[in-house]
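Researcher: Structure prediction, please.
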Amino acid sequence: MNNYLTPKEVLEYTEETGYQKAFMPFRRSALLAFLAGLFIALASVGSNVVAYGIENTGMAKYLAGLIFPAGLILVVVAGAELFTGNNLISVAVLSKRVKPGKYLSNLVLLWVGNLAGSVFVAILIYLSGQLDFSGGLLGAYTVKVGVIKTSMSFTELFTSGILCNILVCLAVWMAYAAKDIAGKSIAIFFPIWLFIASGYEHSVANMYYLSAALLAKLNPIYVTLAQTDYGLTADSLSNLTISGMLFTNLIPVTLGNLAGGALFVGAWYWWAYKK
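Model: Predicted structure follows.
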């Protein structure tokens, strides 16, 4: 007996799972959405800690990518509701088991819940003093990451969001194919490592990176180090605001993630195997 599902069987499993996720009770969805934001934020914390002291950008992303998959493994194995993964409910929508309005309301709830969990972790990290690592260099790096993400164009963020969620939803898709925890973990690890190493934009991860950067910006020591050690200017720092977080970054990345997961993975497989 195979311990995995074929791609066509994964499509059927994804459809049924999407139906169940769409009609999950509101309170349960909200609680699990908060947890998903918390899990992805913790993975983002780990990736920053690994990367901040490495000058070579490629090596920093390579090593950060080894850490970050833990976030999605926690979401899938421990159980949580993640906005980017739930983009795959598009399969159940195309099969007319879930109405588009129900799909969108689920995604909005998860997005807000994921944001709450991410901000919660950012506040804890700031209060814990972890950003003081290496005399505040981790805090400066956190500011740098936020500035970079709020200085990109809509097109850059949208297309990077598409590329990101193609890989994230493929990781979830393959995790659905596996029938044991080891198989699910391995299926998740490599696509997520690839997305982090490639530097693509993930809306929920950015909820942590940007909220942590906004908090770090409140510390003048971190800001000074960000300017002296990372060459940030006053103009670039001015991009890092709550408005910049929401409108400059999260909206285009969220739209890109939705297109990447719902269209290029969920709908694509539905067209290939069902229609």
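Model: The chain has a mean pLDDT of 97.
Researcher: Thanks, that helps.
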